[in-house]
Design a protein that fits this description.
single chain; alpha/beta; five-stranded parallel β-sheet; 11% strand; globular; binds CO-5-methoxybenzimidazolylcobamide; Met_Synthase/Corrinoid; cobalamin binding; Meth_synthase_dom; metal-binding
Amino acid sequence: MSIMEEVKAKVQAGKTKLVPGLVQEALDGGNKAEDILQVMVDAMGVVGDKFSAGEIFVPEMLIAAKAMAKGVEVLKPHMANDSASSLGTCIMGTVAGDLHDIGKNLVIMMIESAGFKMVDLGVDVPAQKFVDAIKENENVKLVAFSGLLTTTMPALKEAVQAVKASGLTGFKTIIGGAPVTQEYADEIGADGYAPDAGSAAMKAKELVA
Ligand code: B1M
């Protein structure tokens, strides 16, 4: 089994203690951080499919997520960084009712690399908390919302519309997450949508340019 296959297998199996060392070994072997990240994202895809098929349950999903998070910690210093200039502050959170944070954390990492100062509101964030964070932080140029569940898509709508209706100005909004589409972003009045963390960083720069 190649080291990349090993990383994928151990993330899938939720081997939290083994994954950081394997990720380091993959880096030492000359694999690009972006490629290692993709292998771990693929592993989570398999985990999701197994959950859908009833082969595994929530605890297994959770330990796989923890293993991936540990691997991402090792990768973080190796991800591309062009943050020479400051593009302003970006507030980000996963919307109310939703506890998924791996995607959010990757998006934060990439938008930060693109030159934003990030404020992470965490998961299960009520709409009003996004509004409060815009008031409490300086130079907010972007508010970013993540949602992973079809059942929390209405919470995305509520949060985007709350910041838009707040009377506060000077920032753009961006949404994303597995069930989200450009059509949905248009429907709820978000300024931008991105399908993954890399394109979220590019879209973020485009929105504030
Ligand atoms: Co959950 N879960 N989960 N889960 N979980 C999914 C999302 C699911 C697709 C699994 C499945 O059924 N196949 C399914 C949702 C189905 C649906 O609604 N259509 C699901 C379900 C049903 C649930 C529960 C309801 C299960 C239950 O309790 N019966 C429950 C809900 C809890 C809640 O939130 N209230 C639940 C719980 C959990 C855990 C807590 C166990 C755990 C999360 C742990 C954590 O995040 N710390 C978990 C996990 C791990 C998953 C899967 C397996 C993996 C998610 C993940 O981290 N993917 C997931 C299946 C899957 O995704 N295939 C699943 C890797 C990550 C890098 O991708 O998060 O998609 P992702 O992020 C991407 C893009 O979406 C995008 O960029 C990211 C990086 O490229 N992106 C943005 C995300 N936010 C963005 C914002 C942007 C732009 C792009 O702009 C601002």
